[in-house]
Hints:
It contains ten helices and 17 strands. By secondary structure, the protein is of the alpha/beta class. It folds into two domains: 4-219, DHBP synthase (Alpha-Beta Complex), CATH 3.90.870; 244-349, Rossmann fold (3-Layer(aba) Sandwich). Strands 1, 2, 3, 4, 5, 6, 7, 8, 9, 10, 11 and 12 form a twelve-stranded mixed beta sheet that branches. The chain has a five-stranded parallel beta sheet with strand order 15-14-16-13-17, sandwiched between helices. Strand 2 and strand 3 form a beta hairpin. Helix 1 packs across helix 5 (128-137) and helix 9 (299-315) runs parallel beside helix 10 (332-342). It is globular, with a radius of gyration of 20 Å. The chain starts with a strand and ends with a strand. It binds threonylcarbamoyladenylate (TXA) and magnesium ion.
Amino acid sequence: xETKRFHIDPEHMDIDKIREAAKIIRExxxxxxxxxxxxxxxxxxxxxxxAKAIYAAKGRxxxxxxxxxxxxxxxxxxIAVDLPKTAKKLADAFWPGPxxxxxxxxxxxxxxxxxxxxxxxxxxxxxxxxxxxxxxxxCMIAAPSxxxxxxxxxxxxxxxxxxxxxxxxxLIDGGEVEIGLESTIIDLTEEVPMILRPGYINQExxxxxxxxxxxxxxxxxxxxxxxxxxxxxxxYKHYAPKGNLKIVTGDEEKVIAAIEKMAGEDEASDRKxxxxxxxxxxxxxxxxxxxxxxxxxxxxxxxxxxxAVLREMDDMGMETIYSEDFSTPRIGQAIMNRLLKAAxxxxxxx
Length: 350
Ligand code: TXA
Ligand code: MG
């Protein structure tokens, strides 16, 4: 299949191109598009055939539910049952934006879209291209991240092109995304709302709006590897680069020394080794290929670059990768959640 690539400048949107892409979705086809978090792979959320095509294009297990993207709060009311009061409060505070709510669904959304679950994940994205595409299609758009299953989520159109070209009808290239980590998922079907996937909107921000919020213990960190996460997608090996990634934690000086030593040993055994460092530390390494993820004091920059850096390591054929730890104050939990998964929880204390 030929994949049509549309170039759309989010600041001066060409509405005719949006309409052409929207028509593909309305007719049952798939179009990848930018959101403020990562690129999504969209299809009509009410069409079981589109859901099946999404799973096939990504190579994703069909029991892993998709997120339904809307462009009006009333669409949530249209597909939900027993909507709790917290839904409206959260929507008022964070929509449009990088937050996904899980609620009980009615029969308008087929089980194919929700991976067989009676609940549905719903998000109202803030990216102008995403909003225009949903509006012009007249559909709600089911969209997982637009990567091949198991690879890091795409933050640029070229990432999507590399993974899905020839497997989908369209790709809207709207430039780089802003946030770079997938949305925060909050499950409102629990007695106490629970974060199933940490993201840019953190626990504290949610609690300010609706009171107590828990975090699924399975997404918290290294010690919980054996607890099964509630979001099916969080159970699979995910975000993984092809190289063997290890995270090195501890005092900065010790981390640098430990990475230097291990990278030296890898090079001595002829392994290609990559190092994920920060602006503050990148000059300190003499071994391996060093990629800078950003300024340690700018956690938005680290989040924005994480998946692209992991993909770059793949493109360079790195066999072993060492990363510094990025437990930053506000979105460090989200960053480390993705990094730990990418590293299959291999952490070295320096
Ligand atoms: O930022 C995002 O959320 C991006 C953009 C494209 O909007 N989308 C995204 O979708 O990350 P995806 O499919 O890659 O991740 C959706 C996650 C999966 O872990 C899935 O298991 C979980 O949401 N999920 C979806 N519906 C669910 C449900 N009803 N119950 C529990 N988990 C659910
Ligand atoms: Mg994904």
